[in-house]
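Feature request, filed as a ticket because there's no other form

It would be nice if the structure record came with a short human-readable summary line next to the tokens. Right now we just get the raw output. Example of a typical job, pasted below so the devs can see what we mean:
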Amino acid sequence: MYGAVGLTGPFFSPWMYHLGASSALTGLAVSLPLFTMVLTTVYLGSLADRLSDWRSAIIAADWLVLLAFCWLLIRQDIVDIIVVWTIAGVLIAAKVPILDAATLSLTRRRGTDYSQIRAIGSVGFVVSLLLAGKIFEVAGFEWFVPILLCGSLIRALSASILPRFRTPAVHIKRTTEERLAATATNLSAPAGNIAAVRVGMTPPALIGPLKTPGFLLVIAGSALIAASHAYFSTFGMLLWLEEGISTAIASLLWSVAVIAEIILMWFFKGVSKKISARHCMFIAGSMGIVRWSLSTIEPGIELLFLLQALHAMSFGLLFLATVNFISRRVEDSIAARAQALSATFSTGLLAVAMLVSGVVYANIGANGYWMMSAMCIIGLLLIGLSYKTPLDDDLPLSYK
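Raw output as currently delivered:
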């Protein structure tokens, strides 16, 4: 999965620039999938929870993404690219929290380490990124679409051989509980209140621990810190290329961030036993402030390598702390929904930041990183406020 992303994801903005698109249109193209995801992912996560197994949703999403990308073989107008990128982006974004929930569930049952499995995904990303960087340097961005399709095909074929993540007994138990809950809601709803009969008195995305203020503050704070990577994700590669850094070296710079992330993920299990999830988020946010603030000075190549290594903290540590924070507080019956809720917070904020990034990049260039530093500061403040709520990092909240 992450290998397919590494082949083309970091090079989307340079490809759009190669086609003559403005920075504003590029920002729109990368943000539209995220805006659409905000409206759909929690619902799609709920649908995935209702399936007998999560693998069906993962496989379907990957083959539909491949089908969408095939349109770019016929037309590559800006409008076509934006539409196709939006459809594929929504499917990929919806699949990621489902895959996280499935992997966390499986690793808990088997006693294996989720962070090490996730690190292998990052290895795939790095290998593909370095390979693609060399290809684009030699052959140019005319090869973007063929490489995009090759990666998508390999991802879809790989998804088709995934194991089952849930036993039929778990699914039967969950659907029986849902039917009983629905019956109780229907009997207690006021006559004529069709909305209450249909969905109950609580929105389906916010049930049990998902509706507690402390939980939501932490998720919102984490989302802001995660979204602070928007400017770098959208225009980081293009900024380097405009500064005269070659495509191959730029790919190496990007890969340093992911390699540092892999190292952290491999040893995260030991870290998580000593430092709570919220404390890990504080470290991540603080390193984000340092990283983005120093990026505004257009640092030399040596400092760039050091700043890229901070990605292990600003993103890797934050991501692992967040998924573990959630997984300890929800049951499997709403696991995909909970991860999707967190992804929706992050993606919604990321979408806004990416949309704004197009305009910011056109006007102030590297100084746009100050906006990212401010997002980290606000995120840390929200997580700090969660300490004023009855939320414990060590004891999971009960599911009701």
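Something like this underneath would help us a lot:
The domain at 2-167+206-388 is CATH 1.20.1250.20 (Growth Hormone; Chain: A;).
Confidence is low (pLDDT under 50) at residues 169-207, 394-400.
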